[in-house]
Amino acid sequence: MPKRLAIALCLFLLTLLGAPGPGLSQERSSAISGLDGVWNRGLCVGPNQCTSVGPDHPALTARAKAFRAAFDEVAAPKYDCWPTPIPHLFTDPYLFEIRQLADRVILTYEKDDVVRTVWLEGHAHPEPRVNEFFTSGYSTGRYERNQLIVETTRFAFDPAGLDSDFNVPSSTQKRVTERYSLDGDRLRREVRTEDPVFLVEPIEFVVESERSDNPLTLPWNCNSEAAQEILSVFPSKYPEDPPVVRER
């Protein structure tokens, strides 16, 4: 059999068996075309608007309401440049970027210099140890039809993890599920947040974004002194306690 004919026959058989041909990546072919790039802030759509998880939100447990009522604003981590938690971060008015790689997806947010790595399933990535928890959690992802599905767990306890405006906490049991898809030229994100410690039921909302021609403005360079200036207008709930003095 001529050499050229033999090569063609081998490539044909590889195609039938589902193996990638020369120059092709089976993992990369799962990526969603048009998802990569910089996107504008998300705007909430649909019946479940992205309202703040305030102290009277119906999904909060009695434990969450009690924690929030006892919490002192001066102790909020955002005044020490702690990054905005997810899912609150998804509706902040700043750009973000999506990059799909062969074995992971990188999500970079202009706000607070947050960078999340989504480890795609099927690539034998090491999992966190039992005692490892993270500010933005540990994310894994997979492609299903026309969606990128991201599951995030392993969150560290955060006194403002469900809402950093109202200091509503989240626990190490928090789970955030994101479903990314394209609706025409708009990016659609369906978000579901569960936390059996602080939520009696999941909180769900949908955010849509338009593509941006501008690059991310990085680094964020949070200034802790500027962030703490507003604390002067908040009287402490516990004036009998020693004053909180932050190192400069």
Defining key terms:
248 residues, two-stranded antiparallel sheet, ten-stranded mixed beta sheet, 3 helices, mainly beta, 29% strand
Structure overview:
The chain is mainly β and 248 residues long. It has three helices and twelve strands.
Low-confidence stretches: 5-29
- H/E order of the elements? HEEHEEEEEEEEEEH
Principal-axis shape: globular
How helical, in percent, are the residues?
10-25%
The overall pLDDT average reads 87
Spatial ordering of strands, largest sheet: 1-3-4-5-6-7-10-11-12-2
Helix and strand composition category: mainly beta
Q: What percent of residues are in strands?
A: 25-35%
Rg over alpha carbons = 22 Å
Helical segment count: 3
Sheet with the most strands? 10 strands, mixed
Tally of DSSP β-strands: 12
Ends: how far apart? 78 Å
Topology:
Blueprint: H1 3-16, E1 37-39, E2 43-45, H2 62-70, E3 96-100, E4 104-109, E5 115-120, E6 138-144, E7 147-153, E8 158-163, E9 168-170, E10 175-183, E11 186-194, E12 203-210, H3 224-228
Parallel strand pairs: 5-6
Antiparallel strand pairs: 1-3, 2-12, 3-4, 4-5, 6-7, 7-10, 8-9, 10-11, 11-12
